Amino acid sequence: PVLQIAARDRTRTGLQAEVIGASAMGIRNILCLSGDSARMGPPPQGRMDVTDIDSIQMLWILRRMRDEGKYLDGRSIKFRPQYFLGAAGAPFASRPEFQAIREHKKVNAGAQFFQTNLVYDPDGLEVWLNELAKRNILDKVYILIGITPLKNLKMAQYMHQDVPGVFIPDTILKRLEAAGDGVQEEGVQIALEIIEQIKGKQGVNGIHLMAVGWEDIVPRIVEEAGLMKPEVEQLVHA
User: Fold this and answer.
1) Which of 39, 176, 178, 236 is 20 to 30 Å from 18 at the Cα level?
2) Residue 122 three-state SS
3) 195-211: string of b/e by CB count within 10 Å (b at 16+)?
4) Residues 205 and 198 sit within 8 Å (Cβ to Cβ)
5) Which pLDDT tens digit goes with each residue over 117-139?
6) 159 within 8 A of 220, measured Cβ to Cβ
7) Using an 8 Å Cβ cutoff, are 116 and 91 in contact?
8) Looking only at Cα atoms, what is the longest distance across the chain?
9) Whole-prediction pTM value?
């Protein structure tokens, strides 16, 4: 499992306590996120966000706790937490060269893997990967590309317009619109095509498949995209 921790509404003290507990429970992978604003969520939204730290500071704190066995105040940690640290990669949040700077900071702070935002534009992804390569990041971090099969046009339009860091090309929106009653199958085919285009790109180590409200489609996509490990595939078809 990968534990996702958002920095929003967390204090430094609370964060340290949380990761110590997670490590004690056997959690070995932690994804450090700044966290989207609560204003994106449903009402009631309450007060403004409390932002004590961001994801880069969180990575630095957690790396120091693990590698140096120290809390922020300098106290020693009797049993150092053991975890593999990750961060969000955002190929389309802004210009790729600017995003590469932020991604570089995350690696320097302690990120060992990236899970990207949803990707529907393989060519745009490659531009971002090239910017990371210029900074010699690709050999320092594992990259998992985020893929969500689009169930209908409304879902695609929402993600494109309202979800930060997500870009869906017009060609995909038009395909979904033209699919009519076959829109779900079209969404699956789009996901399979994108996976095929990106899984051989430089620096790509895997796919982070997120089937929002459509979990039963995951086994089919994993199998048809050739993502299943041979030993697992033998068990499935035994």
Assistant:
1) 39
2) helix
3) beebbeeebbeebbbeb
4) no
5) 999 999 999 999 999 999 999 99
6) no
7) yes
8) 62
9) 0.88
